[in-house]
Amino acid sequence: MTGPIAETDVSTTGFDLTAAVRTLWEIEQIKLLKARYFRCVDTRDWDGVVALFTPDCDLRSTLFPEVKQPRDFFAKVASMIAPGISVHHGHMPEITLTSWQTATGIWAMADYVESDDGRVGFRGYGHYHEDYLKDPERGWLISRFELRRLRVDRFAGRAGGAVSQ
Questions:
Q1: Taking the chain, what is the end-to-end CA distance rounded to the nearest angstrom?
Q2: Is residue 27 within 8 Å of 97, Cβ to Cβ?
Q3: Cβ atoms within 10 Å of 52's Cβ, excluding its own
Q4: Strands 121-135 and 139-154, how do they pair?
């Protein structure tokens, strides 16, 4: 287990079940934060996705390296892929609580992105490297965001590729 409980020497102090449960709870809350991120991006809820970041988030992207703020970044993403379809998956999170208010995380990721007009089409693979900060009113937020792509398979987007319900 990683986090504040991991620094406790169980051999001399015994096992702190309360701290262990709290550590697991906080890690689960960060997983829910990231799940909301993926859902908001894929459903084009740009205000919802921006709300998941701290106002001073350290955002790093090779896609738009000049953009440093989440609202500006996701406005550019929206103009690139909407209308269209995207499917983002995050896997195998490595989350470490560095305190009860801060954490780091690395997520393996895969995405499928296709614009309806055919300008954009790719499948991507890589890792999100993130830091998190727990806000007393809003809960866990992303305070550092970096996507490191390992592979991008490009293809021509198809007109009308999105599924409507």
A1: 41
A2: yes
A3: 20
A4: antiparallel
User: Rounded to an integer, what distance in angstroms lies between the CA atom of residue 114 and that of residue 117?
Assistant: 9
**Tokens matching residue 160:** 């009308």
**What pLDDT, in 10s, does the model give residues 104-148?**
999 999 999 998 888 889 999 999 999 999 999 999 999 999 999
Burial code of 67-76, b = ≥16 C-beta within 10 A, e = fewer?
beebeebbee
Q: Which fold has domain 14-154?
A: Nuclear Transport Factor 2; Chain: A, (3.10.450)
Residues 6+ apart with CB under 8 A from 120: 80, 81, 84, 113, 114, 157
Q: In whole angstroms, what separates CA 98 from the centre of its chain?
A: 18
pTM for this one? Answer: 0.86
Look at the block and give the residue holding tokens 């995207």: 86
Identify the H or E element spanning 50: helix 46-50
In the chain, where the domains are located: 14-154
